[in-house]
Amino acid sequence: MGQWLSWVKSNEKQLFGILNNLAKKAVETSEVLIDLFENFDKAEDYHNKIKKLEREADGLTRSVFAELNKTFITPLDREDIQRIASKTDDVIDNIEGVSGRISRYHITSTPPYMLEIAKELSKATKEVEYMISRLKNVKGDKTIINHCRNTSDLEHTIDDLYRTALAQLFETNDAINIIKMKDLYEVLETASDKCVDVADVVEDIVLKYA
Question: Cβ contacts of residue 210 below 8 Å, gap of 6+?
């Protein structure tokens, strides 16, 4: 009987705990990216740290899906939990994509505006971490929406920096460098979009239970 009940109803504490740990990985990864841009001579070391965090995040994401597959009744809609986990993991994947490209493209110094964008992205991951930490009380906490809006505002700031960086990049003449840098900026900007994706899911949940 007990085993049957454990399948019917999820281990809510464990599920939210995994999501919280995943969000913390996003914050930690974004902070290592800042370290990379501030200490570019050690870029490869920081890239290796980011790769390790990305693998750990993949494991946590798989754990979320495994936990959901073990149960019938979940504390929030199954699809919402899956989207939050996947999009948070996407943030980390894109950050690893940036550090990996820096290594593969043999970038030798911090590109213009990259550090500024990374700092704004780190703020966005902290908003994501807060929102996910409040999921267990989401049904009675409309203040979470303010953090969803904060994430969107940060994404707009990153978009402005991104456009400025591209405008300056296209004024240069090295075609190969333009291709490499454009790719880097796009992947980093996409990481902020994924933070907004998480915020959108959380806002939908808040409004659903309002």
Answer: 142
> For residue 75, what are its two tokens?
């504390």
Please name each of the domains of the chain with its CATH number: 2-208 (1.20.58.220)
**Which run of H or E residues covers position 53?**
helix 43-69
For the cut 90, the answer to whether the pLDDT of residue 210 exceeds it is: no
- Contacts (Cβ under 8 Å, ≥6 apart) of 66: none
201 half-sphere exposure, CB direction, 13 A CA radius: 22
Q: What is the pLDDT of residue 12?
A: 78
Question: Distance between CA atoms of 125 and 143, rounded to whole angstroms?
Answer: 18
Terminal Cα distance for the chain, rounded? 34
pLDDT 10s digits, 91-111: 999 999 999 999 999 999 999
| pLDDT greater than 80 at residue 148 | yes
